[in-house]
Amino acid sequence: MVDLIRQYEDIKEEINASIDSILQSATFINGPKVHEFQASLEHYLGIKHVIPCANGTDALQIAMMGLNLQPGDEVITADFTFAATVEVIGLLQLTPVLVDVEEDTFNIDPDAIERAITPKTKAIVPVHLFGQCANMERIIEIAEKYKLYIIEDNAQAIGATYTFLNGEKKKAGTMSHVGSTSFFPSKNLGCYGDGGALFTNDDELAHYIRGIVNHGMYRRYYHDVIGVNSRLDSIQAAVLQAKLPHLDSYCETRRRAARFYSENFRGLDMVVVPKMVSGCEVICDSCDCHVFHQYTLRITNGRRDALAEYLKDNDIPFGIYYPVPLHRQKAYADERYKEADFPVTNRLVEEVISLPMHTELDEEQLIFISDTIRDFLT
Asked: What pTM, to 2 d.p., does this model score?
């Protein structure tokens, strides 16, 4: 699904030199390279504050801690996503409220958000799934109307751009009270271990979060707030600093691969290709709304699992994200949830399949993957 070895080979000298600088200085925790990467990412995103942390799941938890959400507060998020989003809600003894998603973009349905709001609702966590933003224009309107916090889960869409109706553009993760991301190795901007970060334009919130990530300390051995141990180590920051200048080109390469897939699957009645949130009919290099962390098809004739077996037989990697919705997971089952509340999610888990998507895909591989799928479906 991801060829990290070939990606490393292409930038080996930059990566090795960056890591070597850490080994030579032995500044392994909170060293200069962490602050250098932080400043570079702030510039790239156009945001005042980036706070690095140990991983994307911590980033979500710290965001909720930073907003002082209290046990029993309700947090609305998508049913169709990875469990980390709801996991941290449970860990903090908040109340998760799962809602359905949009059929075409896979992202959280704003109408479902508004229907789920109660007097206990305090925050919305839109997940920018598979590489493009949720409908932030509408979500911001809802949050302002009901005085709710927004925490963007941007683990899959770093580098994507959202365009508002007035033409204003903002990077994914920068449109809310606080955004979070993951630098897991397979992400579009990934390190060589675990890593994460939070984003905000709120000076006071940024200061609070900086204390939380470091045991609640602003000065060594003085603990002003309750915190956690969640720091991005310097070697991972060195890797990310070397890779950040390549992020836009990585995204462009992914879009070209996605365009190849979509053009080759056009005309297959049982295949639904990804829809761009911008409404563009054609995936072009100038369209920056989708960075294709995953390229996910819907197979609508009930043969998704058979296709998966066929791909396995032909040595083609694939992913099914996600085979079980959160409302059916044992850890998050709740009598509040009714199957009738999740018609789209329940259909997607039976239809979605993700194809290999990375910066090293060449035309020969794309042709083989596409032709194999067409042969099975026609």
From this structure: 0.96
